[in-house]
Specification:
Blueprint: H1 8-15, E1 21-27, E2 36-42, H2 60-73, E3 76-82, H3 84-90, H4 92-105, E4 113-117, E5 128-131, H5 139-162, H6 168-171, H7 177-186, H8 194-201
Parallel strand pairs: 1-4, 4-5
Antiparallel strand pairs: 1-2, 2-3
Helix pairs in contact: 2-5, 3-4
């Protein structure tokens, strides 16, 4: 039984001769509103920050603390964001891959090996290892999960200011009971993913005009 993410996968990469290993993860894939956000993080060889874990296992306050620690210790961080409209246009799977590719391209240092949470980034010609539940196993992937989650949560807090009736401040766009009830009361707003709402309401609900 693991006690949390460690550097086992990173050291496997170091032993193969790789030096700049990027962990990659996303946040917001299952949300009903807002963007999907991906992050890529490269640390100095062997660097470890105590307490880093899958972002879903951490409190918002703890994520914020670790977000700053990761920013202060990483060699490079890249962010990729794909908005609700593009998600509806190309589907969430493709949007997630695109966000990951953007995150990699936004790194200041080119990685030579990728550790990815589950989904391979097939258009990037870099050796890579997709790891099922990687954010619970790899320190680098867990770090990326925190960067992606905090970045996306901050965006959703900004959206809350524009659309307070949905209380994005609380659920960040995910399909909680409260969010579903508010959707039924107010209808969707411009940042809701229409393709996701169809699955919930079994009909095409047009977004309100901005």
């Amino acid at each position: 039984m693991t006690s949390g993410p460690d550097l086992s996968f990173e050291y496997d990469g170091y032993r193969q001769g790789f030096t700049h290993i990027a962990g990659i993860d996303e946040a917001g894939r299952g949300s009903l509103a807002g963007p999907v956000v991906a992050a890529a993080v490269i640390f100095p060889t062997g660097h470890f920050i105590k307490g880093v874990d899958d972002s879903k296992k951490l409190s918002p306050a703890r994520r914020e603390v670790l977000f700053e620690a990761i920013r202060g210790n990483a060699l490079s961080i890249g962010i990729g964001i794909v908005d609700h409209a593009e998600i509806d246009r190309i589907n969430i799977y493709r949007a997630t891959i695109n966000a990951m590719e953007m995150a990699l391209l936004n790194l200041a240092i080119k990685p030579d090996y990728l550790l990815i949470d589950a989904v391979p980034v097939t258009n990037i010609p870099i050796p890579q290892l997709p790891i099922i539940k990687g954010d619970t196993l790899s320190f680098s992937i867990a770090s990326a999960s925190i960067i992606a989650k905090v970045t996306r949560d901050r965006l959703m807090v900004e959206y809350h200011s524009s659309y307070p009736q949905y209380n994005f401040l609380s659920h960040k766009g995910y399909g909680t009971r409260e969010h579903i009830e508010r959707l039924r009361q107010f209808g969707p707003c411009i940042i809701h993913r229409n393709s996701f709402l169809k699955k919930i309401f079994m009909r095409d609900v047009p977004p309100e005009k901005s």
